[in-house]
Amino acid sequence: MTGLSTLLIVVGLFLAGGVYSFVKQQMPKSLIVLLSIGAAMCLVAGVMRLEVWS
After folding, report:
1. Could you tell me where the DSSP H helices lie in the chain?
2. Which whole-number Å values give the CA distances from 50 to 2, 12, 29, in the listed order?
3. Residue 50's pLDDT band (cuts 50, 70, 90)
4. Which of 20, 35, 45, 46 is a plausible cystine mate for 9, CB 3.0–4.6 Å?
Protein backbone atom coordinates (compact mmCIF):
# COMPACT_ATOMS: atom_id res chain seq x y z
CA MET A 1 0.00 0.00 0.00
CA THR A 2 2.83 2.42 -0.72
CA GLY A 3 0.62 4.10 -3.32
CA LEU A 4 -1.76 5.40 -0.68
CA SER A 5 1.04 6.66 1.54
CA THR A 6 2.67 8.38 -1.43
CA LEU A 7 -0.66 9.99 -2.27
CA LEU A 8 -1.07 11.20 1.32
CA ILE A 9 2.43 12.71 1.31
CA VAL A 10 1.81 14.45 -2.02
CA VAL A 11 -1.52 15.85 -0.80
CA GLY A 12 0.17 17.01 2.42
CA LEU A 13 2.88 18.80 0.47
CA PHE A 14 0.25 20.36 -1.79
CA LEU A 15 -1.62 21.65 1.26
CA ALA A 16 1.64 22.95 2.74
CA GLY A 17 2.17 24.93 -0.47
CA GLY A 18 -1.35 26.27 -0.06
CA VAL A 19 -0.49 27.41 3.47
CA TYR A 20 2.53 29.30 2.10
CA SER A 21 0.38 30.91 -0.60
CA PHE A 22 -2.34 31.88 1.88
CA VAL A 23 0.22 33.46 4.22
CA LYS A 24 1.64 35.52 1.34
CA GLN A 25 -1.87 36.67 0.36
CA GLN A 26 -2.66 37.48 4.01
CA MET A 27 -5.77 35.31 4.14
CA PRO A 28 -7.70 34.89 7.44
CA LYS A 29 -5.71 33.19 10.19
CA SER A 30 -8.40 30.58 10.85
CA LEU A 31 -8.22 29.36 7.25
CA ILE A 32 -4.43 29.14 7.43
CA VAL A 33 -4.61 27.18 10.69
CA LEU A 34 -7.15 24.70 9.27
CA LEU A 35 -5.10 24.18 6.13
CA SER A 36 -1.88 23.68 8.07
CA ILE A 37 -3.56 21.13 10.37
CA GLY A 38 -4.81 19.25 7.30
CA ALA A 39 -1.34 19.32 5.75
CA ALA A 40 0.26 18.03 8.94
CA MET A 41 -2.29 15.23 9.28
CA CYS A 42 -1.77 14.09 5.68
CA LEU A 43 2.02 14.14 6.00
CA VAL A 44 2.02 12.26 9.30
CA ALA A 45 -0.47 9.67 8.02
CA GLY A 46 1.58 9.17 4.85
CA VAL A 47 4.84 8.71 6.75
CA MET A 48 3.26 6.37 9.28
CA ARG A 49 1.75 4.25 6.49
CA LEU A 50 5.19 3.85 4.91
CA GLU A 51 6.11 1.94 8.06
CA VAL A 52 9.63 3.31 7.92
CA TRP A 53 9.67 3.76 11.66
CA SER A 54 8.91 0.15 12.59
Report:
1. 2-24, 29-50
2. 6, 14, 32
3. confident
4. 46
